[in-house]
């Protein structure tokens, strides 16, 4: 079970210490800030699971902290609870209108505090697990159907992915496209480095095509294969990614076709950062590494762009594995991409 992190922002040292002590006794990790400025500095380095914040403080007050938090895309959905001596109905209303999730009045009742924190974190967990479960369910349905060895068996499952920004393409061993969902149709119709030519999936880069067809060949023979091929756009934008999982489920029988996931990283970049942070509780550094992995970058390229040692990138990668319950890079990318984003896209 992952330990949740609570940021407590309170200018009264004794009260802040007492709150931290109660939270730590309840098995939370606690970050402490004595004022709004300290809180914002901490938020540049850490992403808490929940914020407890006093309203009236010297310098930057609680409303300032809340405004700054809500303006950061990757922390817009972190639960925020005000701590205050302002107990009038209008004060509570103003706090709610400012975007606070809850409002606890001083003197603090610690049983109510702990119950409120637990309820808010549980609410977030339900949203996260529901989203991840729906995505994983659709993927498993495709793989389950692929064991039926017929394209017809795959047809219905493929379109389960229409509510995700993930293209699904079913190809035979020669690369002939048998089925596509709507997102794959949109991607391939752009003919911007990846398209269907005479019924065959092809990229404009010869080297990538070789890698793609070598991986497709392996997918018919192996169950544990999980490869990614990055196709650069002719227009110079973010690349397309094609994920190729192994799909031979028994030594006796070869599949008739295999499932490929096709991702337009331009589309994903619009919404993926804050979505990934919300779903997987990533730190800012982990989010940057995750987004670069989604872009198809290698670990050495990520290290160079972030100006850090490759061992640092590997450290973040291990954290990403732990938080997404994966242990391979291709699996990690698939999980990061397989989240429902239609509602976010419309917003």
Tell me about this structure.
Helix content is 50%, strand content 17%. Helix 9 (265-280) runs antiparallel to helix 10, helix 10 packs across helix 12 (310-324) and helix 12 (310-324) packs across helix 13. The chain is elongated, with a radius of gyration of 24 Å. It is an alpha/beta fold and 347 residues long. The strands form three sheets. It has a five-stranded parallel β-sheet, with helices on both faces. It has a five-stranded antiparallel β-sheet with strand order 7-6-12-11-10, with helices on both faces. The protein has two domains: 5-108, Response regulator (Rossmann fold); 131-347, Winged helix-like DNA-binding domain superfamily/Winged helix DNA-binding domain (Arc Repressor Mutant, subunit A, Orthogonal Bundle), CATH 1.10.10.
Which radius of gyration do the C-alpha atoms yield?
Answer: 24 Å
Question: How many H/I helical runs?
Answer: 14
The CATH first-level class of the largest domain comes to Mainly Alpha
Encode the helix/strand succession as letters. Answer: EHEHEHEHEHHEEHEEHEEEHHHHHH
| Total count of domains | 2
- Which stretches of 5+ consecutive residues score pLDDT under 50? 340-347
Number of strands: 12
Question: Would you kindly provide a brief summary of this structure?
Answer:
Residues 5-121 form the Response regulatory domain. By secondary structure, the protein is α/β, with parallel strands linked by helices.
